[in-house]
Amino acid sequence: MLSIGLDIGTTTISAVVYDSEVDQVIVSKTVSNDSFIRSENSWEKIQDTEIILTKVKAVLDELLQQYCNVQYIGLTGQMHGIVYTDSKGDAVSALYTWQDGRGDLPVENGKGSLVDYLKDECDEKVASGYGLVTHLWNLKNNNVPGNAASLCTIGDYIVMQLCGLQSPVVHISNAASLGFFDLKRKTFKCDILQDLGMDCDLLPNVTDEFKEIGNYKGISVICAIGDNQASFIGAVGLQDKCVLLNMGTGGQISVLSDMIVDTENVETRPITKDKYLLVGASLCGGRALAIVENFFKAYVKAATGKEESQYDILAGLAERFEKSQDKLEVSTSFMGTRANPNTRGSISKISENNFTPEAFAYGVFEGMADELFGMYQEINDMISVDVKKLVSSGNALRLNRILREIFSEKFDAPIELSKCKEEAATGAAKINFLKGI
Questions:
Q1: CA-to-CA distance for 225 and 271, rounded, in angstroms?
Q2: Is residue 110 over pLDDT 70?
């Protein structure tokens, strides 16, 4: 049986055709999602929904022309962000992405940002870019479209458009990503939102099933799910005692659990009716390596006049590092952390013997691993994961053997690359086969 999975990312849109009989992706396609709208406000990160819809349809139609026996279409995409839709199901706003910074802007009462205010006054663990934080800022600043009838994620909006629906049906994985969501009751916290002045009629209907929403050209379309959950399904399935490590622009560690865990650095995200992902996220992740690479690239250009990639050189230096010598301790939280945005990276334990390119390169790779391993230790203290296997995804891990080795040593577990590069799209293609879970 063939199915198509679509992943609407921030910078790319990916699609795969998955064959369930051989458990294999038989073709994949990726196009650029160059839909950002220029803004005079540096904190505003918005994208054009119609450009995204046009690109998704073009990729989907191309695959459907090549494979006429596709039976299901699944979608995933960037979580947290929102689109406002009218009573006909059409977008009446841009996509406010997960990168949008209006939640970090100061509020009038002088109590810091809107996010700070919501944490202090409502005891809500939210961040700027969460859809309902964005909406509350828009509401306070008269920025909500007058004809808005509902709000949803970009994945939900694309499903609506493909199926010709007038209102969204949102899976719990996407609903929880908007903030103000009760994981136990699987509903939005309307009492708090109403006290904050929100009309809860704007909230979408929520489902905890991987259910069919409608059809596109006679092919069943399954509700959209969050990209983190889709990546886990695509790379790991629903295996216990297995940790998914992702190192893209940011970094993530995800572990399947029957329990809801609440810690400073770990977030609980619903994935099925009764299972959750415990997720720790580093803001830098692979970006830390890019920052260091840019540093060395600038030095080489100044010294030689040539602009050359330094990634392979950094990996080679790290591999030549003699572990018997004193290590540098490198913290790669250059962009802060979710719990403390003001945290910054550092280099310590510098001595005459270890102030070498090899030790520095190894320290950067180890620092990237340390941040996620610390989050894993928080999770393990709560639920005793007893990890048996690591599965890695994202280019930083896929392209760097030394980074994989460091992770394997820290977790004391074997590590393997995920079978497919497009984990999220593959997970979206597989969700039809998880219906009823």
A1: 8
A2: no
